[in-house]
C-alpha cells in the first residue's frame, strides 16, 4: 500500500516532469514485485500451516490486516490505468476492468466479513481497546470505489462504464458512513482514555485513509458521472453536473475533516516521540498519501494553487517517509528482529488446551 501510493502520487502531482513519470514506473514495478512476493508467501504460509488461519481470523487485531490485500491490489490497478492503458489501448482497459472486479469481490468480502466477526465474537472489548485499526476493513471498499471510478473513465463501452460507476458509488456508500461511525467511537476513546500506547502510536494517522481516499473517490466519481451522463436520459439531464458539483463539495468537506485528524496525528507523534520502530510505521505512508491525492485532486478541479502546492509538499513528505521506513524495515529484516505474529500465541494456547498431557508435564 505504501509503495503503491507513492507511485500513484508521482503521477498525480500537477507539476509534471519526465523524472516523476519514470519514477512512478520504477515504484510501480517495485510494487508489483512486493505484492507478488507477499502473496506467494501468504499462500504458502496458510497452505503449509492451515491451523494458523483459524487463530489469525479470530484475532481481533491481526485479522484486520486482511483488508490491506485488496487495498494494496487497488494501487496496482490505479497505476495500470494511469500508465499502461494510455500505451496499450483497449485490451489494457478491459484487463484493468477484470482486475477491478476481482478487487471489488475481495474488498466487499473483507469489509462485510471482518466487520461482522468483530461484532459477533464472544469476547468483550472495552472502549480503551478500540483503535484506528478498525478502519482498515471499512477502508477497503472506499479504496475499491476510487479505483472503480478511474477504471470507468477509460472503458470504451458506455454501459460498462456506467455500471462500473454505479458499483463504485455503492462501495463508497458502504464504507464512508461506517468509517465516520468508527471515527466517532475512536474520538471518544481518545477523549476518555487518552493517547494510545507508544508501540501503536502510528495508528493515529489511519483516520486519514478513509477520509482522504473517500474524498478523492467521490470527486472522481462525480467527474466521470458528468462526462458519462452528459446528454443521457438517466434521471435528469443535469444529473451528471449535480453529481460533479456535490462530489467536489463532499470531497472538500472530507478534506477539511481530515485536516483536523492530520493535526491530531502530527501533534501525537511529536508528543509521544521517541517511540520504537515496528512494522506499524508503514501506517505513515498510505493514509498520508491518499490525503495528498485528495488535496491534489481538489487543486486540479478547483484550479487553486494552494491545494496543488500543499498536495505536492505532502507527496514529497510521503516519499521521504517511505525511504525512512524502507531503510528501517531492511535493517530489521536483516537482523531478524522485526517480523512478529502475536496471533501465534493463541495457537500455542489452543494446542495446550487440546493436549492434557502438556498440562500434566507443566504441573
From TrEMBL:
Assigned GO CC terms: plasma membrane
Domain of life the protein comes from: Eukaryota
Protein location: Cell membrane
Membrane topology type: Multi-pass membrane protein
Keywords associated with the record: Cell membrane, Membrane, Transmembrane, Transmembrane helix, Transport
Pfam family, one: SLAC1
Keyword Membrane: yes
Record flagged with keyword Transmembrane helix: yes
GO molecular function, one term: sulfite transmembrane transporter activity
Chain segments annotated as transmembrane: 20-44, 64-83, 95-119, 131-155, 161-188, 200-222, 242-267, 279-296, 302-325
PANTHER family: C4-DICARBOXYLATE TRANSPORTER_MALIC ACID TRANSPORT PROTEIN, PTHR31686
Similarity field: Belongs to the tellurite-resistance/dicarboxylate transporter (TDT) family.
Stated name of the protein: C4-dicarboxylate transporter/malic acid transport protein
Amino acid at each position: 500500500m505504501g509503495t503503491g501510493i507513492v507511485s500513484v502520487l508521482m503521477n498525480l502531482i500537477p507539476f509534471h516532469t519526465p523524472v516523476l513519470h519514470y519514477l512512478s514506473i520504477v515504484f510501480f514495478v517495485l510494487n508489483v514485485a512486493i505484492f507478488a512476493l507477499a502473496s506467494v508467501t501468504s499462500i504458502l504460509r496458510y497452505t503449509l500451516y492451515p491451523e494458523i488461519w483459524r487463530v489469525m481470523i479470530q484475532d481481533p487485531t491481526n485479522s484486520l490486516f486482511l483488508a490491506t490485500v485488496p487495498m494494496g491490489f487497488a494501487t496496482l490497478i490505479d497505476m495500470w490505468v494511469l500508465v499502461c492503458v494510455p500505451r496499450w489501448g483497449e485490451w489494457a482497459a478491459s484487463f484493468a476492468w477484470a482486475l477491478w472486479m476481482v478487487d471489488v469481490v475481495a474488498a466487499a468480502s473483507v469489509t462485510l466479513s471482518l466487520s461482522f466477526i468483530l461484532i459477533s465474537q464472544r469476547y468483550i472489548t472495552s472502549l480503551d481497546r478500540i483503535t484506528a485499526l478498525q478502519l482498515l476493513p471499512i477502508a477497503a471498499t472506499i479504496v475499491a470505489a476510487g479505483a472503480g471510478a478511474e477504471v470507468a473513465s477509460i472503458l470504451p463501452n458506455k454501459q460498462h462504464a456506467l455500471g462500473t460507476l454505479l458499483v463504485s458509488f455503492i462501495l463508497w456508500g458502504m464504507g464512508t458512513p461506517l468509517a465516520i461511525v468508527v471515527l466517532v467511537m475512536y474520538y471518544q476513546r481518545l477523549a476518555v482514555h487518552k493517547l494510545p500506547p507508544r508501540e501503536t502510536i502510528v495508528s493515529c494517522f489511519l483516520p486519514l485513509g478513509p477520509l482522504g481516499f473517500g474524498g478523492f473517490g467521490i470527486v472522481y466519481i462525480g467527474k466521470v458521472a458528468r462526462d458519462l451522463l452528459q446528454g443521457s436520459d438517466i434521471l435528469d439531464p443535469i444529473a451528471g453536473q449535480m453529481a460533479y458539483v456535490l462530489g467536489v463539495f463532499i470531497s472538500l468537506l472530507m478534506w477539511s475533516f481530515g485536516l483536523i485528524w492530520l493535526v491530531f496525528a502530527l501533534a501525537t507523534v511529536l508528543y509521544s516521540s521517541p517511540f520504537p520502530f515496528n512494522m506499524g510505521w508503514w501506517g505513515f505512508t498510505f493514509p498520508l498519501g491518499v490525503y495528498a491525492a485528495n488535496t491534489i485532486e481538489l487543486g486540479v478541479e478547483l484550479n487553486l494553487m494552494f491545494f496543488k502546492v500543499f498536495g505536492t509538499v505532502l507527496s514529497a513528505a510521503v516519499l521521504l517517509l517511505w525511504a525512512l521506513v524502507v531503510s528501517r524495515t531492511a535493517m530489521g529484516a536483516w537482523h531478524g528482529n522485526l517480523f512478529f505474529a502475536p496471533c501465534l500465541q493463541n495457537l500455542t494456547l489452543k494446542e495446550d488446551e487440546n493436549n492434557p498431557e502438556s498440562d500434566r508435564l507443566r504441573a
